[in-house]
């Protein structure tokens, strides 16, 4: 995986984001990708899943686990700072 190489366009700066990406890759590898040796996904071969998943199934799981967005609060108005001139 390129995420482990820490190249310019494929690395995670935050450890939490790296863990999320590895988890997403693991789910894709085990449930979506068809293994050429057994002609099914590894999860199907292990008896964990009966059907081949799609990326839409994974996105639906992520959306279901995400917390509902909260309403935004009011904006804070900026206070104008008076600039004092040092010459007058």
Helices and strands: which structural class? mainly alpha
Oligomer: single chain
Give the mean pLDDT. Answer: 81
For the secondary structure, the number of strands is 0
Main β-sheet description: none
Amino-to-carboxy terminus distance:
65 Å
Uncertain spans = none
How much helical structure, as a percent, in the residues? 25-40%
**Percent of residues in β-strands:** under 5%
Question: Which term fits the overall shape?
Answer: elongated
The ordered H/E elements are HHH
The number of helical segments is 3
Any chance you could write out the topology, listing elements then pairs?
Blueprint: H1 15-32, H2 42-46, H3 55-65
How does this structure look, described?
The model has no long low-confidence stretch (mean pLDDT 81). The protein is elongated. The protein is an all-alpha fold and 88 residues long. The longest helix is centred in the N-terminal third of the chain and has 18 residues, at 15-32. Helices cover 39% and strands 0% of the residues.
Report a brief summary of the structure.
By secondary structure, this protein is mainly alpha-helical. The chain has three helices and no strands.
Structural features:
39% helix, 88 residues, 3 helices, single chain, mainly alpha
